[in-house]
């Protein structure tokens, strides 16, 4: 297994990974190839991927607003789960936040996803029962 920065050339493998993991994405909006390429170029430290040979098997994507770090997506192929990959990816992204003196880290878990909830709780994350609101230019972003 190789842990490294995500290669945007693997864009379609990324979409397949998200599909296989049941993660929603918007390939005509926020998740276009061009936007992901820009994000990886701008902040490669927030795009941690795991490759088994040439196969993309896991990824974590983060962002920050200068004071809070966000884990936006964590995906590990089902056959690679329970091997410590997700835990290591979270640790790697947390270390990136701490290196920037970001001491608050959050993650949003969409819908009813008890597996993700248990995973993050096991790593010390606390459910603050916060309701999320957003305003979007379109349904595609």
Structural write-up:
Helices cover 32% and strands 23% of the residues. With 141 residues, it is of the alpha+beta class. It has one domain: Gcn5-related N-acetyltransferase (GNAT) (Aminopeptidase). The protein has a five-stranded mixed β-sheet with strand order 1-2-3-4-5. The radius of gyration is 15 Å and the shape is globular.
Give, in spatial order, the strands making up the sheet with the most strands. 1-2-3-4-5
Question: How many separate structural domains?
Answer: 1
Helix content, binned percent: 25-40%
Order of helices and strands: EHHEEEHEH
CATH level-4 homologous superfamily: Gcn5-related N-acetyltransferase (GNAT)
Tally the helices. 4
Percent in strands: 15-25%
Q: Tell me what the CATH architecture is.
A: 3-Layer(aba) Sandwich
Q: Structural class per helix/strand content?
A: alpha+beta
Q: Which fold name corresponds to the CATH topology?
A: Aminopeptidase
User: How far apart lie the N and C ends?
Assistant: 33 Å
Oligomer state equals: single chain
Report the uncertain regions.
none
The profile of the biggest β sheet is:
5 strands, mixed
Return Rg in Å: 15 Å
Q: What's the CATH class label?
A: Alpha Beta
Report the principal-axis shape.
globular
Mean pLDDT over the full residue set: 92
Which key phrases capture this entry?
141 residues, alpha+beta, Aminopeptidase, five-stranded mixed sheet, 5 strands
């Amino acid at each position: 297994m190789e842990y490294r920065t995500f290669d945007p050339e693997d864009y379609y493998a990324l979409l397949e990974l998200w599909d296989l993991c049941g993660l929603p994405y918007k390939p005509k909006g926020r998740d276009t190839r061009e936007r992901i390429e820009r994000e990886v170029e701008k902040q490669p430290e927030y795009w941690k991927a795991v490759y088994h040979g040439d196969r993309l098997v896991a990824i974590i994507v983060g962002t920050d607003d200068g004071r809070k770090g966000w884990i936006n997506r964590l995906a590990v192929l089902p056959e690679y789960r329970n091997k410590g990959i997700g835990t290591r990816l979270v640790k790697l992204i947390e270390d990136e936040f701490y290196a920037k003196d970001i001491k608050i880290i959050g993650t949003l878990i969409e819908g009813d996803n008890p597996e993700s909830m248990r995973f993050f709780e096991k790593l010390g994350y606390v459910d603050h029962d916060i309701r999320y609101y957003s305003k979007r230019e379109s349904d595609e972003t």
